[in-house]
UniProtKB/TrEMBL annotation:
<dbReference type="GO" id="GO:0008654">
    <property type="term" value="P:phospholipid biosynthetic process"/>
</dbReference>
<keyword id="KW-0808">Transferase</keyword>
<dbReference type="GO" id="GO:0003882">
    <property type="term" value="F:CDP-diacylglycerol-serine O-phosphatidyltransferase activity"/>
</dbReference>
<dbReference type="InterPro" id="IPR048254">
    <property type="entry name" value="CDP_ALCOHOL_P_TRANSF_CS"/>
</dbReference>
<dbReference type="GO" id="GO:0016020">
    <property type="term" value="C:membrane"/>
</dbReference>
<feature type="transmembrane region" description="Helical">
    <location>
        <begin position="197"/>
        <end position="228"/>
    </location>
</feature>
<feature type="transmembrane region" description="Helical">
    <location>
        <begin position="87"/>
        <end position="113"/>
    </location>
</feature>
<feature type="transmembrane region" description="Helical">
    <location>
        <begin position="134"/>
        <end position="153"/>
    </location>
</feature>
<keyword id="KW-0444">Lipid biosynthesis</keyword>
<keyword id="KW-0594">Phospholipid biosynthesis</keyword>
<keyword id="KW-0443">Lipid metabolism</keyword>
<keyword id="KW-1208">Phospholipid metabolism</keyword>
<feature type="transmembrane region" description="Helical">
    <location>
        <begin position="165"/>
        <end position="185"/>
    </location>
</feature>
<dbReference type="Pfam" id="PF01066">
    <property type="entry name" value="CDP-OH_P_transf"/>
</dbReference>
<keyword id="KW-0812">Transmembrane</keyword>
<protein>
    <recommendedName>
        <fullName>CDP-diacylglycerol--serine O-phosphatidyltransferase</fullName>
        <ecNumber>2.7.8.8</ecNumber>
    </recommendedName>
</protein>
<dbReference type="InterPro" id="IPR050324">
    <property type="entry name" value="CDP-alcohol_PTase-I"/>
</dbReference>
């Protein structure tokens, strides 16, 4: 008795399927916002962000990267992190203010412009290698989380100055400017953790996972604050790499060793720079 050969499952379609699911989550968040269910709307945008973070990695693992997949991912980002958060914020916080629609329109347009610039920079072979470690401006998922900050605060603490339509408008405009800015922001996968901090990182991840279930809106606000606080350090790292082309091809461990060596060789440089002083004869 012969058995029929099983059809092989083509896993190369999995990344694009995840992008489509992310689009469904983003669009569904709009529906729940229109039905006055902001909790579900924010949860679906968070789900879309998680799927967005996974689809690219799955594509690389399966060696399933394609031009079509990249275009689907870019369109999904425009919907999930541009259109959906804009509508959710407008319906939940800004429906009573005519200027609110202008603010969310600005945000959605800035997300699209940011994605277009990101796609254009991918094909620019003239950029130094170290620039691949940084985003130009706030990435779309981070922008979506940031713009939802006032809504998270309202859901956690109730009505307050953080839910005032004029404050929300100003916050949305600031987020829009960060999205289209030229500020370098470090990519998460480009951050290396020293081996002796691995156990601490795992403990922090466990705390974050627990907080996602127990205090999700506080976690959103903490994540926004942490991301905004990392920007000056990212700018400093970008500037340092631009000034030291000799380390562009080195691993993070070697880069840290070079930075330590430079600091030891010039112990007074930082204090003199703060005071605006120059070395004699310099």
């Amino acid at each position: 008795m012969t058995t029929k050969p099983r059809r092989s499952v083509n896993l190369r379609i999995l990344p694009s399927s995840m992008s489509v699911l992310a689009i469904c989550a983003g669009l569904s968040s709009i529906r729940f916002a229109l039905e006055a269910q902001p909790h579900a709307a924010m949860a679906l945008i968070a789900a879309a962000a998680i799927l967005d973070g996974l689809d690219g990695r799955v594509a690389r693992i399966l060696d399933a990267e394609s031009r079509m997949g990249e275009e689907i991912d870019s369109l999904a980002d425009a919907v999930n992190f541009g259109v959906a958060p804009a509508v959710v914020v407008y319906v939940s916080l800004l429906a009573s203010l005519p200027a609110g629609w202008v603010a969310v329109l600005l945000y959605a347009v800035c997300i699209v412009l940011r994605l277009a610039r990101f796609n254009a920079l991918l094909d620019d072979a003239t950029l130094p290698a170290y620039t691949r470690e940084f985003f130009v401006g706030m990435p779309a998922p981070a922008g979506a989380i940031a713009v939802l900050g006032p809504l998270a605060a309202k859901l956690q603490f109730g009505v307050g100055w953080w839910s005032s339509p004029w404050f929300v408008c100003a916050w949305v405009v600031v987020c829009s400017m960060l999205v289209v800015s030229r500020i370098p922001m470090k990519k998460m996968h480009a951050v290396s953790v020293p081996p002796n901090f691995a156990a601490l990182l795992l403990a922090v991840l466990a705390i974050v996972a627990a907080a996602a279930f127990l205090f999700p809106y506080i976690l959103v606000m903490v994540a926004i604050a942490a991301y905004l606080c990392h920007i000056p350090f990212s700018v400093r790292s970008h500037r340092w790499l631009a000034e030291h082309p000799e380390v562009w091809g080195e691993r993070p461990k070697e880069r840290r060793a070079v930075r330590r060596a430079i600091r030891r060789a010039q112990p007074n440089r930082r204090s003199m720079a703060r005071l605006g002083l120059r070395k004699p004869g310099g």
